[in-house]
UniProtKB/TrEMBL annotation:
GO terms for biological process: defense response. PANTHER family: DISEASE RESISTANCE PROTEIN RGA4, PLANT BROAD-SPECTRUM MILDEW RESISTANCE PROTEIN RPW8. GO terms for molecular function: ADP binding; ATP binding. This is NB-ARC domain-containing disease resistance protein.
Amino acid sequence: MAVESVLTFAAEGILTKLTDLAAQEFRMAWGFKAELRKLSQSLPILQDFLGDAAEKAKDGGKAVEDWVKKLKDIADEADDVLEEINYDFLRRQVELQNQMGKKVLNLLSASNPILFRQKMAHRIRKISASLAELKNEAAFIGLVAKKKDPTSQRIREDRETNAFIGKDEIIIGRNAVVSDIVTTLTKSKTNEQNLSVMAIVGMPGLGKTTLAKSVYNEGAIDEYFNKKLWVCVSNTFNVNSILAAMLELLSGKVATTSQQALLTNLQEELSGKRYFLVLDDVWNDEKKKWESLKSCLSKLNSAPGSKIIVTTRSGIVASITETLPQPKLKLLSTDECWSILKHAACSDGSSDIPLGLERIGREIAKNCEGLPLMAKKEITRSERRE
């Protein structure tokens, strides 16, 4: 059982949402600030048991495995609650009207705000009580809390990305940025350099990964580069893991060998070739690790003009990695967010939107606060309610 990955997703992913919601709580005054604070304090305490649970689970401990499953179930419930709270946050200012189509009824919540707050507060208290019981059970089965290194403990979302563009991943309001990036990657003076790096940086939901995918799949990129590679880095920046992922993409070989062997095989694949590498969702801000990766890549004898795109939320990461001008990503306008919602809602290809629905849809788009990912999540949220 992959204890560490399960718990990372269950606990750290929830912590990310808790952090966002804590900030929103002060603005929205939902009425369950104390409950959210208690929940946000409980999860990190249980995280301290992660390392010991992973070690003991390897020995086949049934009690530990059951404990992990319970934590996962509780975390799933917490995730559902936080999703509902976030959904309510985005919908609070949109009023339900009597004459609406089924799609609109599914997009909006008609629940009484006072009853909603009471219900959410009760569910959060119940989750916190379950976590308290789980903490006591951890001590009973012999789990030891081990503090993680605070410099390595980040609040992160555990996710895997790929270079394929889904039908809902449309580019709205970014076409000029895509064009500028492609031009920089294929026609700039930096093509004389062996390896150049561009950072796409911005807050969560701004569409960094979708933008990188759009660039990756441009015809001009295919024409200019001999090889393309997409590696989702996310939580752990491990040089050998990145090299191994590159080799697997190029040759189909699953590499678990030494760095020397990895570089030898990569050199065979990339020597004399111009390649384009996307490192998506990079969190590492240790310059030494980045320099170690660049040192390895410089030994591949690739052709001048090879490029790397790094997507990251961190300006520090960008400053460490980038050698090319940084593209500026602005928040989308309400009209652009509405276009994303409309595209996702009209799955049958129809462009006819009733006036009442359009007005409500534009209110929803306004609440997306210029974030493309927020707009996409809202239509997904409505579909789950159907």
